[in-house]
Structures are given as structure tokens and as C-alpha cells.
Write a structure and sequence with these properties.
single chain, alpha+beta, conserved putative lor/sdh protein from methanococcus maripaludis s2 fold, Elongation Factor Tu (Ef-tu), domain 3, 3 domains, six-stranded mixed beta sheet, six-stranded antiparallel beta barrel, 4 helices, about 35% helix, about 35% strand, elongated
């Protein structure tokens, strides 16, 4: 007997089968599409360097190499050229102010100096003779005045006497008038002589000032000439230690040539060269530290040389406290020069990744060990740390080794 078969269960099974398969296909497509949109690189943990972001005091400093030098050095140059005739000292000899170091000979210069001295002495003698002649002229005027006054007294007495005698008719009128005219003439001559003496006095005062100035100038020239001749003997201008003496007997030294230097070894300074892009950041008072003998010593910038050579400029640093007792000239130290005050900041350890990304992004690891790209913003830096301004938090773990081998992948997986 035939039985009617219900087709609904089979139909339901087919629908479920087709629906489940379609769902699986859709899920696979989603996974495939998401996988195609992100590139991954498998990396061994041992092949990368991991740095942990932390919060702490950020010290902005630059490492520089400093060389110990005497606190003061005076260079000795040849003021006058010549041939070395005598060398009095050797390198390393302590010297006092005025200690002779070597003597130069220059016959042509010495002959010129002798001729010049003779000319100056000639001028000096001429001026002194001029002043002597002026003195003699003044004495002549005074003698004439004395003689004239004596003559006036005589003719005045004669005239007064004739005045008394003419009233008694004892002297002729002509004699009386002659004596009176002689007296008046003598008075006029005296007035003229007084005027001449006054003018001579004014002229003499002017001339004496000019002569005195000229004599003083000639004397200065003579003293300068003597000092110039003395410059042929090189002497120490300060108390210190002689070094760098480069002169041998018979050697010709050109004018202005560097011959030696005097070092003051009572104290020391440290000279360092700094890259020129820090020139606006370096100022007097900045401090640095270095290790010597197991102790940290502090030095500070006190002089900046503005000249830039080979992309660097020089600075001088002095010891804030007492300098180490065992340092010597020429020693070098690795100095950490601090450019700003210590500030609390989020910091990321330095690494070569910066060369590949310019500090624009980093790979940050999650809890499963997958490293994902993340945009960041870095600020100041020192040889150990970068200052993190945006994109990272304390505790984040960042790949700090080179990124070039990752081909700019979106994710790094183990």
C-alpha cells in the first residue's frame, strides 16, 4: 500500500545546509578581505629590541669631548723679525715677568733705529736751541727796559732842574725845551718797549707750549724706539711655564711669527667643540658633568667662541668646585652638557628606528605580542631618551630597533 511522504523536513534540511554554507562563505570573505587590507611580517622576538615607555625626569643634554687646558695662556709672537742669536730657556721652564727667553738680531732694523734716533735727537736739540734763543731775546728786552728806565730818570731830573732854573733866568729856553722833549721821547720809547715785551710774552707762551709738546712727542718716539729695539729680546709678560718654543740658533723668524707660549698652570679649564646647530642653545652658565676617578665633577660654560669651523664651535668650561688634583694638561673627558633644566616627562628609550621613521610612528606591542603601527609625536632628545609628546603612555612596549627590514608592514607577529 502506497504511503504519502512529507517533503517538508527534507526541504528544511536543504535550506539549513544552504544557509550555513552561505554564512561560512561570508565569514571567510570578511576574514579574507580584512587580511588582504593589512600586511603582516613574522618576526622573531630575539631579533628585535624592545623599549618600555616610562615617566621620569627628562635631562636634555649633549655629549661632548673636553680637553684640559691651562686656565690662561699667553702667546708670544715676534714683534720684530730677525735671526735667533741666543736662546736662554728650554720648554717646561718656569718663568717670571720679564724673564728673557731668546734674543734676535736684525742689523738693518738696528741701523734704521740708530739713524732715526739721531734724527730725533737733532730735532730735540733744535727745539731746545729755539727755546734758548727765546729766553735770550726776553732777557734782551728786559735789559733794554732797565737801561731805558735809568736814562729816563736822568733826563727827567735834568728837565725838572731846568724848570726851576728857567724861572730865574739861569737857563736858556732852548735848553729847557730840549730836556723836556728828550723826556717825552723816552716815555714814548718806554711805551713801545713795554708793548713789544707784552707781545713777546704772548708769543713766547704760545711757542713754549708748542715746543714742550714737540719735545714730549720726540721723547715718546725715542722711548718707543728703545722699546722696539728691546723687542728683539723676547721676554715673558707673565709668570707661568714656558711651552711650545719653536726657535733654534741661526733660525730666521718672520715678524709676527708665533714663537712660544706661557701657560698659567695654577688652575685649569676644559675646552670642548660643539656642533654648530646648538649655537643658539649654548650660553654662559650652562653646566656639564664628567666622571674622573670614580667621582662626578661639575663644570660650567664661561666663554663661547663665535667662530665656526668644520661645522663646530669652541667653548671654555671652568670647574664649579675644586678641580681634581691629578688632572693634567691634554687629558680628555666625555662631558654631558645639560641644555635645560630637568623636567618630568614621558620618555621612550632611543633606538635606530628613528632613522627609518623620523619619529613619526612606531610599532607598539600588545599583550599577545603583536606589534601594530601607531602615530607618535616626539620632542626633545638626549643620547638615552626621546621625550614623548603624543601617542604613547607609560608602560607601552615599543620596538626600538631598525624598521627597514619590515617593509613598512602594518603588523609584526611572532
Amino acid at each position: 500500500m502506497d504511503r504519502v511522504i512529507d517533503a517538508r523536513p527534507a526541504k528544511r534540511r536543504r535550506l539549513l545546509l544552504w544557509g550555513g554554507g552561505g554564512l561560512l562563505v561570508m565569514v571567510a570573505l570578511v576574514v579574507l578581505v580584512s587580511g588582504l587590507g593589512r600586511s603582516r611580517v613574522r618576526v622573531g622576538t630575539a631579533k628585535v629590541t624592545i623599549g618600555t615607555v616610562a615617566r621620569g625626569l627628562f635631562k636634555e643634554f649633549i655629549p661632548i669631548t673636553g680637553t684640559v687646558q691651562p686656565i690662561k695662556t699667553v702667546f708670544l709672537d715676534a714683534v720684530q723679525g730677525g735671526t735667533v742669536e741666543e736662546r736662554f730657556l728650554e720648554d717646561g721652564t718656569p718663568v717670571e715677568i720679564g724673564t728673557p727667553i731668546l734674543r734676535l738680531g736684525n742689523q738693518q732694523f738696528q741701523m734704521d733705529a740708530i739713524n732715526r734716533e739721531a734724527q730725533l735727537l737733532d730735532q730735540q736739540n733744535n727745539l731746545r736751541n729755539t727755546r734758548l734763543n727765546m729766553d735770550q731775546q726776553t732777557n734782551t728786552w728786559r735789559q733794554q727796559l732797565v737801561q731805558l728806565d735809568y736814562y729816563m730818570k736822568q733826563i727827567e731830573r735834568t728837565w725838572r732842574l731846568n724848570q726851576g732854573l728857567i724861572a730865574k733866568g739861569l737857563v736858556a729856553q732852548q735848553e729847557h725845551d730840549r730836556s723836556q722833549e728828550e723826556f717825552q721821547l723816552a716815555q714814548d720809547r718806554r711805551k713801545l718797549l713795554i708793548a713789544n715785551i707784552r707781545n713777546d710774552s704772548l708769543f713766547r707762551r704760545t711757542q713754549e707750549g708748542q715746543i714742550a709738546s714737540s719735545l714730549a712727542l720726540i721723547q715718546d718716539n725715542l722711548e718707543f724706539l728703545h722699546r722696539t729695539l728691546e723687542n728683539l729680546t723676547l721676554r715673558s709678560p707673565i709668570k707661568g711655564t714656558l711651552s711650545g718654543l719653536r726657535a733654534e740658533i741661526g733660525q730666521t723668524i718672520a715678524q709676527g711669527a708665533r714663537i712660544a707660549q706661557i701657560d698659567v698652570l695654577d688652575a685649569f679649564k676644559v675646552r670642548a667643540r660643539i656642533p654648530e646647530h646648538y649655537v643658539t642653545r649654548v650660553s654662559a652658565g650652562l653646566r656639564g658633568t664628567f666622571l674622573h676617578g670614580g667621582q662626578e665633577h661639575t663644570i660650567e660654560v664661561f666663554k663661547i667662541y663665535p667662530e665656526v669651523s668644520n661645522g663646530e664651535f669652541d667653548v671654555d668650561l671652568r670647574f664649579v668646585d675644586a678641580a681634581p688634583a691629578d688632572i693634567r694638561r691634554g687629558q680628555t673627558f666625555q662631558v654631558r652638557l645639560q641644555l635645560s633644566e630637568d623636567m618630568e616627562a614621558v620618555m621612550l628609550p632611543r633606538g635606530p628606528f628613528f632613522q627609518d621613521t623620523g619619529g613619526q610612528w612606531v610599532y607598539v606591542l600588545d599583550a599577545e605580542g603583536t606589534a601594530t603601527k601607531r602615530d607618535v609625536k616626539l620632542g626633545r632628545q638626549n643620547p638615552d631618551m626621546y621625550e614623548v609628546l603624543e601617542g604613547l603612555q607609560p608602560g607601552d612596549r615599543v620596538v626600538t630597533s631598525r624598521y627597514v627590514q619590515f617593509n613598512d608592514a602594518d603588523e609584526l607577529i611572532q
